[in-house]
Amino acid sequence: MRALPALSVRRHSGAAMTAQIARSVLARDGLGGGMDRFWAWYADRSARVVHRTERIPLDALKGWDRHPVTGAVSHHTGRFFSIEGLDVHIPGAPVPRWSQPIVNQPEVGILGFLVKERHGVLHCLVQAKFEPGNPGGLQLSPTVQATRSNYTRVHGGKAVPYLEHFRDTAGRQVVADVLQSEQGSWFYRKRNRNMIVQVFGEVPLHEDFHWLTLGQLHRLLGVENLVNMDARTVLACLPFASEGAHPLADAEPAGADGPGGGHPVAPAHPDGGESRVDAGFHHSLVRSCAATEGSLHSTVDIVSWISDLRSRTDVVTRPAALNALPHWYERDGAIAHESGRFLEVMAVDVTAASREVPGWSQPMIEPRDQGVAAFLVRRIDGVLHVLAHARVEPGYVDVVEIAPTVQCTPGSLHALPAEARPRFLDAVLEAPPERVRYATALAEEGGRFHHAVNTYMIVEADRDIPDGGDYRWLTLHQLVGLLRHSHYVNVQARTLVACLHSLSTGSPATRSAVPSAPPRR
Fold first, then answer.
1. Which of 191, 174, 134, 160 is nearest to 397 (CA)?
2. Nearest-10 Cα torsion for 429, 431, 432, 437
3. pLDDT digits over 232-252, tens only?
4. Which terminus of the chain is less hemmed in, N or C, by CB atoms within 10 Å?
């Protein structure tokens, strides 16, 4: 009998990678010119990359078809994505039944960061990327951000740079690789592969790409609409937490040198003053990243809580004709709700010399108002916890995902019953400035959504808030642990995890304007 090859076991520890991440977080100015070098590159790319987005009627789309019976909008190849109608029934919800347009994109795309040690410090390769829905032009995206239709070149255009590092990881170290959901209110069961791959050899640098430390990226998370949604979701998947004492435990919080490293942005406080670093908050946040510091609930209890809600919650969805949705109408080349709230289905014609193809047209979802996504946080025995909400959305693969404490569009509350008002909305919107640890307007995915922006907030609670029902207090190390698995933490909460990581060195952040909400009824 042929002998089996000899196998051996070895210990697998993430401590070395967490230490690499910590060193990169502390390198807030980068290397070789620091933030000034970054801003010079970004200004050069913004000046050189020619792009134009023009709104057009849905019927003027080129290469897209309208279904003769349902009115659904789909690409002539049958690839990319389609916009369809959906009927939703969630028994017991504040709004138990409704109909809406939704994006159906069954393909799994790749969102991936290449990381590499340069002069002993881990760097991420970011891309200055134009998307037709971006407010304000170029945003920082992951190294690779591509649908399967794009990277298989259905469009007949250019190849996606650096894709080979993610399609074949031999000779590289996979730091993170997990399928994650996207907006469950706008996408139907959408998933993307979130990847971080460490390379060890030389990597040629293309002109639209730049190496940044995690510390630099954390500072840039305080600049409005700069770090895009796909970059934020991948950054959240970093193995930032530790099993033992966290490598940042002895680091002193950085001074208030402003988000973006000197780039002109909104002031840190509404009165124009600088934000002050709170050493106590900083240390409680870093302790929250270490499993040895403990937590209010065990992770087993948190998973059981989610599993129980999933098993008891019914979400019934069925396809519906886009051209016959109740309370929706098509007028002036777009599909809109009769209330003027929620969203519109519209279309754009695009010119973009830096993309795989130089021009195209496509349908998009355009929200009618700016949203809010916020975590309430509190220190429990000196360990920071976030108040997570188990949220139901019709487009989730598995019914319920962990969401921010508050996730809503305040302007749409006028068109909803009083019961739909988020429980902790007033605690977020009325928080005094000294309790607001982070508040920055950040755009959502600009390839499908037109000028979709949420103000992301981290607010320290000023009173004791017990959890229960759909809410639980979690530590950051528990959220990071759940992010190793699919469909536990939603895309808005992942952005807030990345933002919390950015505060681990006390980095100040822009204080963006917060959308107002109607008074309670």
1. 191
2. -100
3. 999 999 999 999 999 999 998
4. N
